[in-house]
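Continuing from the previous page of notes. For each protein in this section, the sequence appears first, followed by its structure tokens. Read the first protein now.
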Amino acid sequence: MPSRPELAALAANLACRRRLGLALVQGSPRELEDLLAALAPRREAASPAQENPAAAPAAPAAEELEQIQRQMGNCTRCALHEKRHRIVFGEGPAPARIMFIGEGPGAEEDRQGRPFVGPAGRLLDLMLAAVGLRRQEVYITNIVKCRPPGNREPRPEEAAACRRFLEAQVQAVDPEIICTLGRPATQSLLETKAPISTLRGNWHRFMERPLLPTFHPAYLLRTPERKREAYQDLKTLVRALKEGAP
């Protein structure tokens, strides 16, 4: 008999699948068991710190991220600083089992200084919940930390200016799996021109870590018929957390 927390997690999963337009009955019982099993150990292990975060000492990884952010400072290393309002460094626990990397901040992210808080961010939260993950459990950042004007794609020299900080973030967060969101981030990290349609759902390597690309939530808002493929990618990611990525 599932426990009450497991039933609550399953209920949240089904609710998010409904909001994403996914079939509620799709997936085998084993897939649901795998989803709950992959999720439960992390929550149980983290519960003491979650109950009283102020009493928990700062983790070395979190301190390392703070140091990286201080080194970045009020960055003027590329032209993106000229029109930005805030640097969007990234957020999430450190270390984290999963690290999501998008392309760059949008208007709302530039206003708040936090990644993925606009419409695409709200969809990302739903996508995570649909596979039994919570935003608080993952680290999220972008290949550039300042908003490109008009939400255009980051230019190679802009991504290059942020690259050493991004790589330092990866080292500090030390994720088991990296998930890139969208074509620009995926092509930048993998140094390829291959289309996202052929890269997504397949395993790659970045900084000696497994990397799984999927579609960017902003693209899915414009092209909702691809949501199911992104959902399958995230199911692959969750399964790899339990069984190990290739």
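Done with the first. The second protein uses the same format. Note its length before scrolling.
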Amino acid sequence: MVKPGIVEAVAKRILPLVMISVIAIAISLAFVAAAAAEDFGCACHSDIEANFNTSLHYTGAGMKGEYAKFAAKEFGIDMDKYYAKWNCSKCHATTCQKCHGEDPHKEDISKNISTCDQCHFKKQTATFVGDMPGHTKKGPAPDIHYEKGLTCADCHNPTEVHGDGNVYTSQLEAVTTKCEDCHNSPGKTVKNMTVTQYSTDIDAHTIHKDKLDCIACHSGWTLNCKNCHLDTRKGAKPVSDEFYLGKASDGKIKTFVKMEAFYDNASHVGYGEWFSHTVTDKAKDCAFCHRNPEVLCEGCEGDILGKGGSFIPQETIERVLAAPIETTAATPAPTATPTLISSGNNTNTSTSIANLPRIFLYHLKSFKRLTGCATRARKQRNT
């Protein structure tokens, strides 16, 4: 049996050594962290520099990480090697000058759309100004905020761009800007313009409050990516005639983007909540969702990108499609026959002979839904 005095003596000798070791390790880790942190040469803004080291703009972790978890994982692609091969990191800001220019104290270019367009031309800045990705051709319409003269910096604050010191894995976590920041802020002005405020006097706002995100109804159009060949990076075909909604990570219904990827004859389909930057003040009409199962992504299959999102549950889809709605008949053109809202998108289709099969299927679907609702109602009455 060890005597208590001996244990105390040994402890007194060991304790200082343990404390010295802990301090040494802490100092070493601090030096390692300092060495790993990039020095951007902006000593006056050391706090911003420190945060920028972990920002998505610098690390590029968002898209890279999502590919690594889904499409690249399924295809067996090493994303570190892939990024190096295709020089993907060139679109990530590694210097202050990339966004602020050579001499930002004389002229700061960070608030110009053209600056953001250096990297975001493949999606966000293109759709914002009304173009298809890469500005290859005109899209359906520009974002109303662009038409009002706003730029990216009018909505996205410096903390979102520079980072806040936290390590995020996707834009869904890092971007905090919301429509409510301006449109639910009485008296708010932007560039000397009074901002239109959210109103509960609108029936759709009252009915869908806390269920739908603003962009579910106020996105003019959305992008979806088809034929994206990760092996050759050729043949990608973005389309603007498809529109999907899903349940976002915050529980609200939002616009989802569909991405079809291919690699060595293998394929992968993913869906993820995405803000298309195509906002309009003309909200979708009720029939756009309540009569279109395709918009609700009924029957969709694929991975859900990001954290916490999901497809809309089938029970919810059936309830939405069965809900009674008021429809406003479209005014026909002078030479046109009566019109019918198509099941594919928010356009009107002339009831010509060529469209009779589509019309028949549309009414057949509606009949099935109505009879299904009646059957469920009878069952409920009998129970």
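What the second structure shows: Residues 4-36 form the longest helix (33 residues). The chain has 18 helices and ten strands. We return to this in next week's lecture.
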